[in-house]
Recover the amino acids of this structure.
């Protein structure tokens, strides 16, 4: 890839970032936006530089918790979707309850989580899971349900068993939908992890909480920035996975 | 160098991006500042004769409506505020309401903070000043079960257990310095909720003397609360503040406000029952019995010889200086500011 | 080996109708080998949702080894009929029977249970497995190791699995029937070579043209050495040249294996080129409007399309279709 082509890809998204950063720096330095409400980008960078070890350690913990929560969502979500797809009756009976995961405010059930799981990583993983599982279920179920009816006919024609049809047709065919669900769940897993960390004192959430009570907005934003980057990284990872899994589904200009 | 057609589009997207980014930031700042809960049905107000020159101001509380704000609410119900030419809108808060930033940003004219919060805010360029210190003695402390047999606040940290507190707060860091946290598991403060406390006998929780211990008592748990005052940390609490700019531009309004608040607290200390009934409607989570007990428990912290001498809500330079020194030691502030810059209390 | 051809009748203009008996006979002597099955549609009626009558008490007998084309206006129920024959759908009343010369191979009626072909074949067929394998159409491809599955279906679109290579797509039916990996890949390879895709085995469907994908679909249908091949407008989405080429290829495969073929199409030229017999259905609810033999030599070459006799055959079908 030529240098120019690289620039054309990276350039456009960078420009709004640069403008925003420079703009807010000026506005805050100039006193138009008070620095105790919004930290100047330079202050945030300084906070990162001065607290690198603590922030990276916290980032690592949050990353671990979010990843575990995400993997749990994927595992449980896919199994739930498969179970729900077995019959319309089952789906109608149980699907509304999965929506509960989407809507329950974590803060409200936080004390319960702490009692069941004790303070620590488990609460964070549970929170991350609860917040991110629903998109996995919803998208996977939609994908499994929308299998090409002609292909279902084909499988029936040759007497394929239910499990055979599920494993060889419905699940692979649902892969694009499943990956869409994963993409959404990734970011949510990070958010859920941070919320869980507010409750149990862990990782970046703990840094944010602590910094907030000390009125260190620069540190708060530094932690928030890292959390966002974590979400972005997870998103990027899933996109890569999606590309690798689905690239043969779409026409490749090089071959054929 | 030739710029390809993509670049004008880049600039356009940058401009749009900036506009799109500033809007939500402004909205977010606004939302953070206006973080309030809507009050329930307002209780009947005894109307005072409406004077045409009532100044509309807002007062942001840093917790839910409870007896710790009793004196502030009296004015709303009995017309004390209107007597002092004020129309005060009280905005209840909750866990994490950023009152000091709300006042600093000008979203509200008055707010409630604790003294250490104010000093740290000033350190960060937020020019706010204290006007009235409700609690002469800080009601913050750590609550444990009586059954644990502790006799001092240090016992909590020298015996294994869980301690829930906002560890970023100065008092917590002082405790860490003094006793160390090796024996205990420090977790975030659940903010008013005693579920974990009920579930775990070895649980210690950050509380206000006037709140959670009484709720626990109602739930049948015998508790003992060790105030942070024990380790010599005693900031003024539930302090009424305003921006210096607002004070300089509206000295009469500020004066009226302090006078009204003082009157209100006098009335509340004399008889909290009527006001309690009306406040409780706004915070049904606590029942009237607990409201009464709370009001009783807080009296000795609000009224003492100093207030008898200097008036309710009085503040002295010595106390502010001492607090500033403690915070400077903790490195929350770089150097102790002049006490006179932090508060306003007209000497008699 | 080809059955003895019937002498071509010069079709007379204005007499489009031929007796059903002649058409129902089909190519003689073909029923003695097991290359095709007889399909009997007996008073079949299909009603949807208690209201829409898709097929109205239709009866039709298709002798083993015949190439039948079914024509009709859009939405007249051709596809429904085909699915009823394939056992993918059940008639509201009446029955579809797929018969071997020896035994009634499969029956599907309103009362019959089960859909899977494997169930319908029954133990007798499994025992006859080796026998079938040994026989096979004269000079055709090698025998299939699978328990012979009489029915195969080719859809309007190729409907390939995008995550599988061409080879594994073609091998799918054998995989579902439990054939070992080595065997099924070998058979699939053979069929793909037959349809001219020997070089594309490792490609993915996304890398193929529409015509190539349809050929894979065809190969997939043939891997089980079906004795009844059903095609539902398979080449409709392709361009004319590709379509004609595939028609020729299909006819060639048919002549080599002599399975019974039922081909649903919109296209009169295609029906005329491919089939020995054509049935025209009316608008919904489907009824038979015309049932005539196609009087053309069994070997259909590309030049045939421009023959006068070809045009005459088409005219008859055209007239019937207009009145449908």
């Amino acid at each position: 890839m030529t240098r120019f082509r690289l620039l054309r890809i990276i350039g456009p998204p960078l420009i709004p970032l640069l403008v925003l950063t420079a703009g807010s720096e000026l506005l805050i330095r100039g006193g138009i936006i008070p620095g105790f409400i919004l930290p100047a980008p330079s202050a945030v960078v300084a906070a990162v530089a001065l607290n690198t070890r603590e922030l990276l350690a916290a980032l690592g913990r949050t990353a671990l918790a979010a990843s575990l929560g995400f993997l749990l969502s994927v595992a449980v979500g896919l199994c739930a979707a498969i179970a729900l797809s077995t019959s319309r009756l089952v789906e109608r009976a149980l699907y509304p309850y999965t929506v509960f995961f989407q809507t329950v405010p974590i803060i409200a059930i936080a004390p319960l989580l702490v009692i069941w799981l004790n303070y620590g990583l488990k609460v964070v993983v549970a929170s991350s899971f609860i917040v991110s599982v629903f998109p996995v279920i919803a998208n996977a179920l939609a994908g499994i349900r929308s299998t090409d009816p002609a292909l279902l006919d084909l499988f029936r024609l040759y007497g394929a068993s239910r499990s055979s049809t599920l494993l060889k047709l419905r699940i692979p065919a649902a892969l694009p939908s499943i990956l869409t669900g994963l993409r959404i769940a990734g970011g949510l897993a990070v958010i859920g992890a941070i919320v869980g960390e507010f409750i149990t004192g862990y990782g970046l959430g703990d840094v944010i909480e602590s910094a907030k009570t000390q009125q260190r907005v620069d540190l708060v934003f530094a932690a928030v920035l890292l959390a966002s980057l974590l979400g972005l990284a997870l998103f990027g990872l899933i996109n890569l996975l999606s590309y690798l899994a689905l690239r043969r589904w779409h026409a490749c200009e090089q071959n054929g | 160098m030739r710029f390809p057609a993509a670049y004008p589009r880049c600039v356009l997207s940058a401009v749009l991006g900036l506009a799109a980014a500033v809007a939500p930031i402004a909205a977010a700042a606004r939302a953070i500042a206006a973080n309030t809960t809507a009050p329930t049905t307002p209780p009947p107000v005894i109307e005072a004769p409406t004077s045409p020159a009532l100044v509309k101001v807002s007062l942001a509380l840093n917790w839910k409506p409870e007896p710790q704000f009793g004196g502030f609410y009296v004015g709303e119900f009995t017309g004390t505020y209107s007597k002092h030419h004020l129309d005060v809108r009280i905005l209840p808060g909750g866990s994490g309401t950023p009152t000091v930033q709300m006042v600093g940003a000008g979203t509200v004219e008055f707010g409630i903070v604790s003294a250490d919060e104010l000093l740290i805010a000033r350190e960060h360029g937020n020019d706010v000043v204290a006007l009235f210190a409700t609690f002469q003695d800080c009601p913050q402390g750590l609550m444990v079960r009586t059954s644990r047999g502790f006799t001092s606040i240090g016992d909590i940290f020298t015996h294994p257990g869980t301690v829930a507190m906002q560890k970023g707060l100065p008092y917590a860091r002082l405790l860490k310095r003094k006793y160390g946290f090796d024996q205990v598991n420090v977790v975030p403060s659940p903010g008013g909720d005693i579920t974990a406390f009920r579930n775990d006998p070895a649980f210690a929780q950050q509380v206000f003397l006037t709140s959670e211990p009484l709720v626990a008592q109602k739930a049948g748990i015998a508790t003992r609360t060790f105030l942070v005052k024990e380790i010599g940390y005693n900031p003024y609490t539930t302090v009424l503040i305003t921006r210096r700019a607002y004070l300089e531009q509206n000295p009469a309004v500020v004066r009226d406000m302090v006078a009204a608040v003082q009157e209100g607290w006098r009335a509340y200390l004399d008889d909290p029952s009527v006001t309690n009934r009306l406040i409780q409607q706004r915070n049904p989570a606590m029942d009237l019995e607990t409201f009464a007990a709370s009001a009783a428990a807080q009296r000795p912290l609000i009224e003492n010889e100093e207030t008898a001498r200097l008036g309710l809500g009085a503040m002295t330079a010595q106390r502010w200086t001492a607090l500033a020194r403690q915070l400077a030691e903790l490195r929350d502030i770089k150097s102790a500011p002049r006490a006179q810059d932090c508060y306003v209390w007209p000497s008699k | 080996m080809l059955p003895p051809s019937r002498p071509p009748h010069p079709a007379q203009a204005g007499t489009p109708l031929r007796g059903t008996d002649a058409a129902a006979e089909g190519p003689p002597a073909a029923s003695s080998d097991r290359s095709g099955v007889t399909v009997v549609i007996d008073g079949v009626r299909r009603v949807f949702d208690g209201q829409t009558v898709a097929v109205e008490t239709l009866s039709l007998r298709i002798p083993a080894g015949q190439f039948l084309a079914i024509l009709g206006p859009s939405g007249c129920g051709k596809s429904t009929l085909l699915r009823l024959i394939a056992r993918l759908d059940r008639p509201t009343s009446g029955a579809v029977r797929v018969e071997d010369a020896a035994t009634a191979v499969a029956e599907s009626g309103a009362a019959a249970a089960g859909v899977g072909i494997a169930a319908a074949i029954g133990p007798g067929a499994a025992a006859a497995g080796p026998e079938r394998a040994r026989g096979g159409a004269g000079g055709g491809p090698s025998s299939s190791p699978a328990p012979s599955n009489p029915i195969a279906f080719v859809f309007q679109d190729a409907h390939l699995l995008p995550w599988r290579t061409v080879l594994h797509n073609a091998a799918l039916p054998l995989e579902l029937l439990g054939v070992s990996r080595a065997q099924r890949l070998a058979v699939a390879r053979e069929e793909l070579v037959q349809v001219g895709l020997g070089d594309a085995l490792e490609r993915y469907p996304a890398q193929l043209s529409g015509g190539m994908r349809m050929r894979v679909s065809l190969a997939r249908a043939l891997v089980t050495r079906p004795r009844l091949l059903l095609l539902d407008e398979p080449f409709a989405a392709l361009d004319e040249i590709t379509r004609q080429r595939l028609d020729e290829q299909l006819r060639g495969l048919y002549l080599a294996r002599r399975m019974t073929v039922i081909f649903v199409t919109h296209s009169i030229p295609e029906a005329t080129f491919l089939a020995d017999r054509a049935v025209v259905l009316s608008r919904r609810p489907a009824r038979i409007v015309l049932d005539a033999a196609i009087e053309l030599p069994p070997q259909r070459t590309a030049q045939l399309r421009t023959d006068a006799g070809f045009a005459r055959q088409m005219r008859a079908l055209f007239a019937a279709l207009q009145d449908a």
Notes: Residues 31-40 of chain B have pLDDT under 50 and may be disordered.
